[in-house]
Every structure is written in structure tokens, then in C-alpha cells.
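Subject: for your reference before the review

Hello V.,

The reviewers asked for a structural picture of the protein, and I figured it would be easier to keep everything in one thread rather than splitting it across files. Below is the amino acid sequence we used in the manuscript, unchanged from the supplementary table.
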Amino acid sequence: MIDIGLTRTAMPLHIIYMCESNSHPCQILDSESRYTYINPPMIELLNLAGSSHIEGKKLSEIPHWSSVFADELHGYYGKVMENKTTLSLLVTCAFGRESQIQTYIFKVQPFFDDDGNVIGSMAEARRCKFFSPIQYIDNESPVSLSTHAPHNYLKSRDVEIIFFIYHGLTSKETARRLGISHRTVENRLCIMYQKANIHNIYQFREWCKDIGYDCYIPPAFIQSKIQVID
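And here is what came back from the structure prediction:
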């Protein structure tokens, strides 16, 4: 790896054009993990005023929640450059203008100069989407999870019960995960069934979809972190 002080003006124009036309967030960092270039979607993702506020800086120097992962990410970028290989990171953090916690997959790869020397790293971020075998055979599309509750008339405990029951856990398994009694789960489900005028688990799942809770995950069940994925 050679440190030649990668700058935006030194980058090939076709790389800039490629990133500018990409609808997904992109970034290019030099060998010291300083931002050299970010495209408009990345500016939105990091909730920045513009690219000029970040170029030449490290993640730890910008006002964004992900800066708490600066050292960890710096280590991953270093491995990518050292091993000349691609690495995918599942990053869960508060992103966007609304600082809403979301999960993105950052595909990080080495950035080469014209002589084949590694002079930095390049990454593209995509919103993580989830897809089950049943959704596949039903010709449904992958979905992104949301921590923004579609309604506010349900109690937080009911929402947590809905999450586990909708995703196939039994009442006993749900009770164990929530640290409450099995009877409490059954009673809360019974009340929800009565209010929604439903009578079985199949109608319950359809009701969850109708009110927008099929893609919802309670904030208590999601935490900011980084995972390496294959």
C-alpha cells in the first residue's frame, strides 16, 4: 500500500461520474481513512451540509452518530487495503436527516491507482433488506425494517408481543424473551384479537400487515453495532 495523498482532484473523472450517477451512497477514502469523496446520497445518509464539510477529514472528525465506530471502521478499511480484498459490513446506526436508526450494508473494496497500487478504499452503502423463503415463493419483494411505529394507539408491550408472535414465536417463547409470564402474553393477545375482531393466527398476521407492523421492529430490539458479513 502506497500513501500518495489521494485527493479528489487526482481521481479519474470516470470514477466521479460513476459515483455521482449512483443512487446509493458512495464514499472514497485515502490510505489514512480520510474522506476524499462522497456522493450526494452519502451526504444525505450522514446528514451533512455538503461534501466540503467532510473531505480531508476522518470519520471521528465529523458530527455523525457513526463516528463512535471510527476506530473499528478504520481497522476494517485497513484490512481491506492490506489484503486487497472486498469486505461487507452490516452497520446499524442512526442515519439520514431524521437520525433514525437503520441498518445498511457497506461493501468496502480497495481503491487502486493506474499502476495497481492500493491508495485507499471505496465503499457503497445499501439499505439492508430482508427476505424469507415464503416471500420468495409468493413473489414478494424484500423489505426494509423500520423502527418508526405506524400507529401510536398500541402500548409498547403489545407492540413487542406483536413482533415476536408475527415472526413465528409461541406465546411461551415470547414470554421468555420479554421476561413476563405466559399468561400475560395470552391475555394481551386475547384483548388484541377482540379489538381487531380476529380469531386465529392467520388473521392475526394479516391484521399486522394491514396496520403496518409486518416490517416494524421495536427500538428496544435493535442496537447500534457493526457486523462483518459474507
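For the response letter, the relevant points are probably these. Strands lie at 26-30, 35-38, 87-95, 100-112, 118-127, 225-229. Residues 147-214 form a domain with the Arc Repressor Mutant, subunit A fold (CATH 1.10.10.10).

Happy to draft the paragraph if you're swamped.

O.
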